[in-house]
Amino acid sequence: MSIKSLIINPGSTSTKVGVFEDETLLFEETLRHPTEEIAKYASIIDQKDFRKQIILDFLKEKNCDVHSLDVIVGRGGLLKPIPGGTYAVSDELLADLKKGVQGQHASNLGGILAREIGDAIGKPSYIVDPVVVDELTDVARISGMPELPRRSIFHALNQKAVARRYAKEHGTTYDALNLIVIHMGGGVSVGAHSMGKVVDVNNILDGEGCFSPERAGTVPAGDLIKMCFSGKYTQQEIYKKICGNGGFNAYLHTNDARVVEKMVEEGDAYAKLIQDAFYYQIAKDAGAMAAVLHGKVDQIILTGGIAYAQLTVDKLTESLGWIAPITVYPGEDELLALAQGGLRVMTGEEEAKVY
């Protein structure tokens, strides 16, 4: 018997919604929310009823009876650090999403909306591999400053989805492989996956690892301290330099890797230097993850929007092909990844984890 699922992936100014039958997408839509509409609400949680109504109206438009759904799966938000997997939206998980225990973000609404719609029709609700998935080894947490342990915040949903996809396509299981997965989007995360766990990965939110279209990555700490106390910047302005206005944005005033590639093609020498540095830093991080895996790497996977660029694939293959063969899964199919997470639990392939 097939499983029909509603998938909810909220972003800051939109909510992506999809309905699946098993792994087959029946229909999807990105429901846009005008800035002036969002501005009416004092907090993320205040948007809940507004977004829920838009989702229900959309299902009605598509002649999809909400009672025909078997499961509701929402994007996981900024919860406490947890191992990867599919989690039932329990009362405790729901409370932490509402509180925003690690911050307020639109993704927090995913589990909340899933639970409310699921409860209304008497069906289960889940979240899958939120950005706070934390499977770091104890040794990987040590930063050099006891007050500042390393934290795991990365593209967990897509990294784990492509890792599982690779395993399935090659007749094995995720927990039998050592992989390096490189997700390249607005942020770039480079993860060492060992036997089903991401044992090391850079924190994409707070300034660690390679720079990216919007993030500065690791910067010289002493100079950053001087900048913080120079009196020229507020705390918020400094943070924006690290996350939002860093990387390509800082050097080339664009966060679009395609624009950077066009600049290089047109002979812009400075743009080429920055692009080369981008590939250089990604390769350096991946080399470090190969050391984490003791050189025993079954495959390197390139994913995220920037993996569509053949130049990116060629450059990274040139730098990293000696470590392991390279597979490319461009883009990030988050709705399918969420649907697959719910399906694994509904079919008994895996047990839902308890938060």
In words, what does this structure look like?
With 355 residues, this protein is α/β, with parallel strands linked by helices. The chain folds into two domains: 4-134 and 334-346, ATPase, nucleotide binding domain (Nucleotidyltransferase, domain 5, 2-Layer Sandwich); 160-330, Nucleotidyltransferase, domain 5 (2-Layer Sandwich), CATH 3.30.420. The protein has twelve helices and eleven strands. The protein has helices at residues 35-38, 48-61, 91-99, 108-121, 156-169, 221-228, 235-242, 248-252, 257-265, 269-292, 310-320, 334-346; strands at 4-10, 14-21, 24-32, 71-75, 86-88, 125-128, 178-184, 188-194, 197-201, 299-304, 326-330. The strands form two sheets. It has a six-stranded mixed sheet, sandwiched between helices. Strand 2 (14-21) and strand 3 (24-32) form a beta hairpin. The radius of gyration is 21 Å and the shape is globular. The mean pLDDT is 96. Its EC number is 2.7.2.7. Keywords: ATP-binding, Cytoplasm, Kinase, Nucleotide-binding, Transferase. Its main location: cytoplasm. It catalyses: butanoate + ATP = butanoyl phosphate + ADP. InterPro entries: Aliphatic_acid_kin_short-chain, Aliphatic_acid_kinase_CS, ATPase_NBD, Butyrate_kin.
Give a short overview.
Helix content is 37%, strand content 19%. With 355 residues, it is an alpha/beta fold. Helix 3 packs across helix 4 (108-121), helix 9 crosses helix 10 and helix 10 (269-292) packs across helix 11 (310-320).
